[in-house]
Amino acid sequence: MTSFSRISAAALLTAAAFAPVAYAHHSGSMFDPTKQETVTGVVKAFNWTNPHVTVEVVTDQGPLPIGLWTLEGSSPGVMVRSGWDKRSLNPGDKVVVTISPLRSGEMGGSLRKVVTASGKTLTFSTSALPTDTPR
């Protein structure tokens, strides 16, 4: 076996080993789409970065756990198609966020809808995803 063949085989085996991890991440399997919860609080950070836009919300009231929630959207490109931009949210904004929670029960989830104190409503829909993207 040539050196090139060995390197190619090693690369192929490595890619095959990580494929399930990559698919599970992009499939959204860590979120429970059958449940929706509401997180009410103040935006600590709005991260407009690849691979996923994230919003950090600090809550100070129940019924959900109080503290820092990390909420994930899609890529900035998909979020733009849903009507978002990098100035949609700012630290200090009061928000009510509808999420699909993490299956693990940790303080996080997938963004579905954000309503600001001024009444602005931002949604994220999987219909904004390209049709060849796993859901």
Give a concise summary.
It contains two helices and six strands. With 135 residues, the chain is α+β, with helices and mostly antiparallel strands.
Walk me through the structure.
This protein is of the alpha+beta class and 135 residues long. The chain has two helices and six strands. It has two domains: 1-29; 37-128, Beta Barrel (OB fold (Dihydrolipoamide Acetyltransferase, E2P)).
* Largest sheet properties: 5 strands, mixed, barrel
Shape: globular
SSE order, as H and E?
A: HEEEHEEE
Looking at the overall shape, the CATH architecture of the largest domain is Beta Barrel
How many strand elements?
A: 6
As a whole number of angstroms, the C-alpha radius of gyration is 18 Å
CATH topology of the largest domain: OB fold (Dihydrolipoamide Acetyltransferase, E2P)
Q: How big a fraction of the residues is strand? A: 25-35%
Poorly predicted spans: 16-25, 128-135
Structural class: alpha+beta
User: What order do the strands of the largest sheet run in, or round the barrel if closed?
Assistant: 1-2-3-5-4
Number of helices: 2
| Integer tally of domains | 2
What is the averaged pLDDT score?
82
Q: Which CATH class of the largest domain?
A: Mainly Beta
Give the helix proportion (percent range).
Answer: 10-25%
N-C termini distance: 40 Å
Keywords:
2 helices; five-stranded mixed barrel; OB fold (Dihydrolipoamide Acetyltransferase, E2P); 6 strands; 2 domains; 135 residues; globular; alpha+beta; disordered C terminus; single chain
Topology:
Blueprint: H1 3-27, E1 37-47, E2 54-59, E3 67-72, H2 76-81, E4 94-101, E5 108-116, E6 121-123
Parallel strand pairs: 3-5
Antiparallel strand pairs: 1-2, 1-4, 2-3, 4-5, 5-6
